[in-house]
Amino acid sequence: MRRFAGIDVGAEAHMVAVVDESGALLRKSTAFGEDAAGYRRLRELLGDPGDVLVAMEATGVYWRNLFAFLVAEGFSVALVNPLRTNRFAEEELARTKTDAIDALGIARFAAQKRPARTELPDDATQDLREMVRLRMRILLHRGDCVRRLHRALRLTFPEFTNHVRTLESELATVLLSRYPTARAFGAARTKAVARVCFDGHRHVGERLAAALISAAKDSVGRHYSGPYRREIKYLCEDIALARERLRNLERDIESMLDQHEVAKLLTTIAGIGRQTAARLVAELGDPARFRSSAALASYVGVIPRVRQSGKRKFSGGPRVPLGHVLLRRALWMPTLTAVRINPWLRAHYQRLLSAGKAPKRALVAAMRKLLTAIYSVAKNRRPFVLQLPGPTISPPLGGAAVNDLS
Description:
The chain is α/β, with parallel strands linked by helices and 406 residues long. It has three domains: 3-113, 2-Layer Sandwich (Nucleotidyltransferase, domain 5); 127-254, Helix Hairpins, CATH 1.10.287; 261-307 and 322-405, no CATH class. The protein has helices at 36-46, 64-72, 82-91, 99-113, 123-156, 170-178, 182-186, 190-194, 206-217, 227-257, 261-266, 274-284, 293-300, 325-341, 343-354, 359-380, and strands at 3-8, 13-20, 25-33, 52-57, 76-80, 308-309, 312-313. The strands form two sheets. It has a five-stranded mixed beta sheet. The chain has a two-stranded antiparallel ribbon with strand order 6-7.
């Protein structure tokens, strides 16, 4: 490549600058719009796609249409991590930050660092990614509704959770949609509450109904009503709607999973369920795109941090905010499950505990080991096979799919 273009991505307009191999300015930063006319203007500014590398940051969703346009026009496009471009600007002692300066900085970064061309995942992976992220947004919305419902109940009927523990359950939302406050429960008849059907075939029952009515009549929140009745009913409706949407989405995600080779293979690892496999593919694409399992672990953020200078060690300092925090959260519970049901991972975890590692540190190390299995399965396109020779537990040697697990 003889030319390097940097694009600072915005919501309604972008900036582009072009430099040569030495970083000398060929085209100063120029604005173009996020529309067909703006894209045609960009095409004129960039010229021949054969000798230019276009670099830009993946800012929100604003880069996607631009990326698709440039690829369709034959350009090589590299998506770069904003952390790298920011550090590059600091290295260049940049003191001013504007869109025009950022575009030129990205172009010079590309000229010096020569980032690799970015290949977007296939259509199946992109569709799965959008479905998984939609599910996560609905989960977050449901969680927010549950927290607001809990707050309202603290005022109107705090004793309710002594009898119905889980507020997002069908039992809780059906009961509260009919009897939103302690005053409403106190005025109800036991048989009417007992006959309430909450999941299509199960009923509340007289024992629970009597306990709720008794608690309601003596509740410390029985003086609250009015607006809280409506708020609680609306929140219960929102939670019920989110629950139904999640069921439909999870069914659709599992159906899509059956059509995705890598995702299906990941479920052969004990501890990786179907929803976790979908989440992994959604966030990582193909795990085999990383150059090694260590690179994958570094991307997720489970590589130990070592800081040492001479005789000084800084291991007790604050953690570096690097890595994919959403993936670490998504893998935490699967790792907890895997160290119980997966023999080789359980043996690894127990060895770390025996060596004096703290339980959480041992779990993070087990997560890294699990990522090694994920990388190996994706790299070799073969199911995970566990072989435990003899009576002792040892790392698996199950063919090509687990060659990297030693």
